[in-house]
Design goal:
Strands 1, 2, 3, 4, 5, 6 and 7 form a seven-stranded antiparallel beta sheet that branches. Helices cover 30% and strands 29% of the residues. The chain has four helices and seven strands. Strand 3 (39-43) and strand 4 (46-52) form a beta hairpin. It has one domain (6-133): VC0802-like (2-Layer Sandwich), CATH 3.30.2130. The chain is elongated and about 55 Å long. The protein is an alpha+beta fold. The longest helix has 18 residues, at 116-133.
């Protein structure tokens, strides 16, 4: 069942690194990927896609923000207040950029590829802090 309680969400954040390096690309009018991207968002200026770096290179697309994908394992309610804000605030304090995406079951972070280890440490520390506050340091 989706969780709304901020403390329980942070205590169960369980970050999981996904394989691969991803990039953001923008496609021009009428241009569409030949295979489904991980993410796609339509904006007035163009279509933003997030794809594996090797896919963007193979297609000849200009790519920015080489990043790695972290799934936050907490099953957050789409109406939960403050969960992503708390996570990205901690990452910001560590000087780590994070592009956050909410999906139906989980929230997702895209962090610079060279800083993913640090990002996992920051999110893990946040989780441990909230588990300890809830009296369950081991989960």
């Amino acid at each position: 069942m989706p969780e709304r309680d901020l403390g329980r969400l942070l205590a169960s954040v369980n970050p999981v690194l996904q394989p691969g390096t991803y990039v953001y690309c923008t496609l021009g009018p009428g241009e569409r990927p030949d295979t489904p991207p991980l993410l796609q968002f339509e904006e007035p200026e163009g279509t933003t896609v997030v794809v594996l770096a090797e896919d963007a290179q193979r297609r000849g697309w200009t790519a920015v923000f080489p990043c790695q994908w972290i799934v936050l394992g907490a099953t957050s309610d789409l109406e939960a207040v403050g969960f992503l804000a708390a996570v990205v605030t901690e990452l910001a304090r560590a000087g780590i950029a994070a592009n956050a995406v909410s999906a139906f079951h989980h929230d997702h972070l895209f962090v610079p590829a060279g800083r993913v280890g640090e990002a996992l440490e920051v999110v893990g520390a946040l989780q441990r802090q909230h588990r300890a506050a809830a009296g369950r340091p081991d989960g």
